[in-house]
Design a protein that fits this description.
By secondary structure, this protein is mostly helical. The protein is 38% helix and 9% strand. It has a two-stranded parallel ribbon with strand order 1-2. Helix 1 links the parallel strand 1 and strand 2. The model has no long low-confidence stretch (mean pLDDT 77).
């Protein structure tokens, strides 16, 4: 952070973009407050499974997108990278997200 960079930031929206922005800002020492009317991933992010896809109009339009997404999560150069860790806070986040994530009718998971 430079001397002119903000030390405190408000992020509006707790979707994929808002939470990613908040995460990266916090990693850089910025104090972040996230505001959302309905809660994490309850708006636009739930319908597209958290994918930021400006060129695609339907969520996960083909099976190859799932493999592509998993590669992106594992790639350290990807903006969607989630480093493998045993951090209990991250596993708690995964657990909480899974508990509130909508599931299609007939889904096995």
């Amino acid at each position: 952070m430079t001397a002119r960079s903000p030390r405190t930031v408000a992020v509006v929206g707790a979707g994929m973009v808002g939470l990613s922005t908040a995460w990266f800002l916090q990693e850089r020492g910025v104090t972040v407050t996230v505001f959302d009317e309905t809660g994490p991933t309850a708006g636009a992010s739930w319908g597209n499974a958290g994918w930021i896809t400006p060129t695609l109009s339907t969520p996960l339009p083909e099976p190859s997108m799932l493999a592509h997404g998993l590669r992106q999560v594992m790639s350290s150069t990807s903006p969607f990278h989630v480093p493998p860790t045993l951090d209990p806070r991250l596993w708690r986040f995964y657990s909480d997200w899974r508990a509130i994530a909508p599931r299609p009718a007939g889904a096995l998971v």
